[in-house]
Amino acid sequence: MATLEEITEGMRERVGEDSGLDATLKFDFGDDGIVFLDAASVPNTVSNEDEEADCTITITKENFEALANGELDPTTAFMMGKLKIAGNMGIAMKLQSVFS
């Protein structure tokens, strides 16, 4: 399983300079930490700060990795309760372009 640092670096590579999300997003891995994406400004930044976000996705690191690797469908994960979304769900829907 990837470390929080590896996930954070992988997210930096995926979003690049401008992901087009135009919002802030937080992945909350519980006790395993946070990945915060500030895509409201260009260049986008990714950190492990616990900042206020437009959308927060609560998910385990294992399920996040499966999602990122295409092994877990986001809709299925949401329906099964493997991922929870708080805030602007439209931002979460735009994430598919980052993960594809």
Structural class designation: alpha+beta
Strand coverage percent: 15-25%
**Fraction of residues in helix:** 25-40%
Series of H and E elements:
HEEEEHHEH
- Mean pLDDT, all residues: 93
Q: How many β strands by DSSP?
A: 5
Main-sheet strand order equals 3-2-1-4-5
**Low-confidence spans: pLDDT under 50, at least 5 residues?**
none
Give the CA-based shape.
globular
Query: How many DSSP H or I helices?
Result: 4
Question: How many angstroms does the end-to-end distance come to?
Answer: 21 Å
Let me know the largest β-sheet.
Answer: 5 strands, mixed
Rounded to the nearest angstrom, the radius of gyration is 12 Å
Description:
It is built from four helices and five strands. With 100 residues, it is of the alpha+beta class. Strands 3-2-1-4-5 form a five-stranded mixed beta sheet. A hairpin with a 6-residue loop joins β2 and β3. It is globular, with a radius of gyration of 12 Å. The mean pLDDT is 93.
In short:
The protein has 100 residues and is of the alpha+beta class. It contains 4 helices and 5 strands; from the N terminus they run αββββααβα. The protein has helices spanning 4-15, 61-68, 74-79, 89-99, and strands at 24-28, 34-38, 45-47, 55-59, 83-87.
Sequence-ordered SSE layout with sheet pairings:
Elements: H1 4-15, E1 24-28, E2 34-38, E3 45-47, E4 55-59, H2 61-68, H3 74-79, E5 83-87, H4 89-99
Parallel strand pairs: 1-4
Antiparallel strand pairs: 1-2, 2-3, 4-5
Quickly list its features.
100 residues; alpha+beta; 37% helix; globular
